[in-house]
Amino acid sequence: MASQEIDALTSALARLPGFGPRSARRAVLHLVKKREGALAPLRAALVAVEERLATCGICGNVDTTDPCGICTDPRRDDRALCVVEDVSDLWALDRSRLFPGRFHVLGGRLSALEGIRPEDLAIDSLLARVAGGGVDEVVLAMNATLEGQTTAHYLAERLEKFPVRLTQLAHGLPVGGELDYLDEGTLAQALRARRPVA
Amino acid sequence: MASQEIDALTSALARLPGFGPRSARRAVLHLVKKREGALAPLRAALVAVEERLATCGICGNVDTTDPCGICTDPRRDDRALCVVEDVSDLWALDRSRLFPGRFHVLGGRLSALEGIRPEDLAIDSLLARVAGGGVDEVVLAMNATLEGQTTAHYLAERLEKFPVRLTQLAHGLPVGGELDYLDEGTLAQALRARRPVA
Ligand SMILES: [Zn+2]
Ligand SMILES: [Zn+2]
Asked: Where are any strands of DSSP class E within B28-86?
């Protein structure tokens, strides 16, 4: 075996998080043995996502439409806005189905170490959304890391002047924990017990 | 988020061996965030493999050419033929780079329980290859399972009439072990110490 094409597929899979060379080989073997049942559907799904992939101009979510499905969902509550560091956090919170409002993706967190400053994050667009009115509560759903909490404090200062309630996720999050790695039960608890920013 | 296309991609990945819903979600997120660096290469690799996928008419290997790369490799030794149950076993042995000859994939093993009989396996084509001459040694590289060893014994009887040396992998394989799960060192040892069938 080891044709150029099969090697390329193995390498591409091996670079996915959670995959290594060995599991990639097993996956490739599964794919080539189940051409109709596994390879074709995966190829079709990848092509469809790639063709339609878009970053939402409103919230920064990655979806197959712009604006994204969350921003255009009429059942969602415009009055609650949940700010997250990353798209993965948005997805994690959205899966919990406990937050009925909209989201805003910063695209990272402030980091002196990595030289990430406020102007590197989607903060101006956040302030514009809040300034636009109609928002009652902003949930600062940063990771429970030092940098995440620094970012939350920075945002709290910038948002102080607006007539909105600032809340953050309950400190039930494990210290150093990243939202995206938490089970949905922990996330649900943290979201239910969210409290005003001190 | 959870657009139809992204859900479909998550499901397709979650069905790969070694993947579950959670790791599939992380992989999808990685793909949508690295459209050029991860999604496009994976899509291209899948398309290329799917377009060219073929089962070798000589040995039963799955490759992007028919005959496969092993059957057409002029550096390989026609005199040694290694018979394996499955394509995954061929790939595992081929990775060890210790077997210089050709392969033959049976497509399974005899199983009274599952009703798999000799005529369900690529045994006639194996006998034809050996009858064609030029083969000095046939390695019966079945799995070290009861069914694998039953299959090896059956093949040994069918091949008895040919002037070939029948060998099997050294019994260093863990009992019940499947070739494809072994590390390459164990495989290499078993292949180096292969011995005549008693
Ligand atoms: Zn959006
Ligand atoms: Zn072949």
From this structure: 54-55, 62-63, 77-84
